[in-house]
UniProtKB/TrEMBL annotation:
This is Endonuclease/exonuclease/phosphatase domain-containing protein. Transmembrane segments: none annotated. It comes from the Eukaryota. It comes from Pinctada imbricata (Atlantic pearl-oyster). GO terms for molecular function: catalytic activity. InterPro entries: Endo/exonu/phosph_ase_sf, Endo/exonuclease/phosphatase, Swc5/CFDP1/2. Residues 78-219 form the Endonuclease/exonuclease/phosphatase domain. It holds the Pfam family Exo_endo_phos_2.
Length: 231
């Protein structure tokens, strides 16, 4: 967060049970949402800089795969949903339940807010955007999987756009996951924005220099909005 001057950092597969808000040694705040049964599996979180911490209006832990936070800015308010999707190999009913819950969260977000959905979707949307031009650009990579097809169908209906497919970066700056043996590379982590606020996103790309102990790369979006302290 220091290296890339990041104000809001979404985390997937946190593996912390229950939910809560803590203050880190750096002074940043961390909000997290995990399993109610106490198992250290799945889990999502969000770390806030001091500026973002002061802008936080409300937040809601939903379950081990979804959480929501809303922020005050100098213009529009921002609603952020952090996700950790089931894998592409998960059972049909598990994937359907996740998407239904995500759609329910989307439906309850104030319609004038800038909506960002961030995290590990385990979804490859591929490079071919034919038939899904309104939900993605032409700069994805690879081939689409089932999770990717399901997401695109949802985003078409909900007027959402996958920002990582819009900007023409080198392939290495689109890849978000690399297998431990280095042989498999995918674009499965995404930043999604409401279509009417698409022009607020200045860039989305993988930051390969991030100091994180993970096989996932940091995906950074620059947003044309300034946070403001919430009174």
């Amino acid at each position: 967060m220091d290296r890339y001057s990041t104000d809001i950092l979404g985390l997937s597969e946190v593996r912390w049970p229950k939910n809560g808000k803590i203050t880190l040694q750096s002074g940043r705040a961390m909000l997290y949402s995990g399993r109610e049964d106490g198992l250290h599996k799945e889990g999502v979180g969000i770390i806030l800089s001091n500026k973002a911490k002061k802008s936080l209006m409300e937040w809601k832990p939903i379950d081990e795969r979804l959480m929501y936070a809303r922020f005050f800015t100098t213009s529009l308010k921002i609603s952020i949903v952090v996700v950790y999707s089931p894998t592409n190999e998960s059972a049909e009913e598990v994937k359907e339940a996740f998407l239904e819950q995500l759609q329910s969260v989307i439906n309850n977000i104030p319609k004038h807010d800038v909506l960002l959905i961030i995290g590990d979707f385990n979804a490859k949307v591929g490079r071919n955007n034919e038939g899904h031009e309104s939900a993605m650009g032409k700069h994805g990579i690879g081939e689409r999987n089932d999770n990717g097809e399901r997401l695109l169908d949802m985003f078409e209906i909900s007027n959402l756009v996958i920002t990582g497919t819009i900007f023409p970066h080198k392939q290495r700056h689109k890849i978000s996951w690399i297998s431990p043996d280095g042989k498999t590379e995918n674009q499965v982590d995404h930043v999604i924005v409401s279509k009417q606020h698409r022009t607020l996103i200045l860039d989305t790309r993988a930051m390969r220099g991030a100091n994180a102990s993970s096989d996932h790369e940091l995906i950074r979006s620059k947003v044309r909005i300034k946070l403001k302290k919430h009174k």
